[in-house]
Design goal:
The protein is an all-alpha fold and 257 residues long. 62% of the residues lie in helices and 0% in strands. 39% of the residues are buried.
Length: 257
């Protein structure tokens, strides 16, 4: 398969009505819920990944047709194709290669252009760390290629009224944390610390927990000493989830002001 139409036909042939109804409930597609109106074919993620593997040579120009699909799984396929393409261009051998840098930037720009199509938490979480987060660690020709220019990209997402763009700015820091850099996580955790939506509260706590586990538990404790009194209980519970029970009780006992 090397065209969007072929990919969509293949995915539609795998539709499963029972699984479709289950997914629509799980991803909160009812009226007034965060995924309101989203449509599913009923494919499990491994099925979509199998399609991605068979379509890995799809031209970049075809991917927007997938990203604009009304089908959730087709949009996921488009995002995973971007992820796969980006990762092939981000190996150590190609990290500083001029053509690879240019192509990675092209993928990032497409990802940002169609960011609103990643309109549920799974679509964000399966793509943002591996495209946006990885890009933060690599050379780029966008702007002057500085850390300040990269922060501007994330700040724009963080300041967007779109919940999913906001989540991108937080969840993408999983990749930088994995590489030992806590600064991105701490910056966007502070920016989103008072977010009213539970999906963002969970994302902030999750990223803080990962930062504590992969970089420094003491750095997490320092952050909590400064902010536990103003954090939502959801964020705090997620952030301290891997601590010993006694320490978890201590943090949860801090009154919220």
């Amino acid at each position: 398969m090397d065209t969007a139409k072929e990919i969509i036909r293949q995915m539609e042939s795998l539709a499963n009505e029972r699984q479709r109804l289950q997914l629509m409930r799980f991803f909160k597609t009812g009226k007034g819920e965060y995924g309101e109106g989203d449509e599913f074919l009923g494919l499990k993620v491994p099925q979509t990944r199998d399609v991605v593997q068979s379509a890995k040579d799809t031209p970049l120009s075809e991917i927007p047709l997938l990203l604009m699909s009304p089908w959730h799984e087709v949009r996921l396929c488009g995002l995973l194709l971007l992820v796969a393409r980006f990762e092939r261009l981000a190996t150590r051998r190609l990290e500083h290669d001029a053509e690879a840098v240019m192509k990675r930037d092209e993928i990032l720009e497409m990802y940002l252009q169609y960011a609103d199509q990643a309109n549920n938490w799974d679509l964000v979480d399966l793509s943002a760390p591996k495209i946006l987060g990885h890009w933060l660690l690599l050379p780029t020709n966008l702007g002057e290629g500085s850390a300040d220019d990269k922060r501007l990209v994330l700040d724009k997402l963080a300041q967007s009224p779109c919940l999913w763009r906001q989540r991108m700015s937080m969840v993408c820091t999983w990749k930088t944390t994995q590489q030992g850099d806590p600064s991105w996580c701490l910056r966007y955790a502070e920016i989103h610390l008072h977010h009213p939506h539970d999906l963002m509260q969970k994302a902030v706590g999750w990223m803080l927990r990962e930062m504590g586990k992969r970089v420094s538990i003491d750095l997490l404790r320092d952050f909590l000493r400064q902010h536990a009194h103003e954090m939502s209980r959801t964020t705090l519970r997620y952030a301290i989830e891997k601590m010993e029970e006694g320490e978890r009780r201590k943090w949860m006992a801090i009154p919220r002001q």
